[in-house]
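Q: Hi! First time doing this. I have a protein sequence and I read that you can turn it into a structure. Is that right? Here it is:
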Amino acid sequence: MLSIKNIALSYCEYDTVDELEAMDRELINSAIQAAESAYAPYSGFRVGAAVRLDTGETVSGSNVENAAFPSGTCAERCALSACWSGYPGKKPAALAIAAISDGEFTDDPVPPCGNCRQLIAEEEMRHGKPVRIILSGRKKTLVFENSKILLPFQFNKNNITRAQS
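A: Yes, that's right. Below is the predicted 3D structure, encoded as structure tokens:
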């Protein structure tokens, strides 16, 4: 029997970063600073990500391109990897992403790629708590309370666990 389902997505959209709490503005600024240090000689598209840990500490990362595509590293993966290696046991609470294109902060927010969405989803599953995702551009900022909004049908460990007989 055919059953049609609907998915409703809710997120917050802000016209300016001034509408956000100070901690979120600081996280966005860290993401912008990280984007400024990105290594993107091929595309010129520089992305920065900043993670606020549950302890309040901030860890950032930027994209790193490589002539041997697709060997580069996304900013989100760089920042989350730095969390795992440098801050073991601490949980990511929020992640901000910002990008620079043609030397300018992008007008529109830049969402994480599919691989990074899956990586964020894995972090949420691993720690049992959501990660707020903040996408910032010059014209607007979007805030998602968790990765399920960006990746509603997440692949997870339940998909690969064999059923017990």
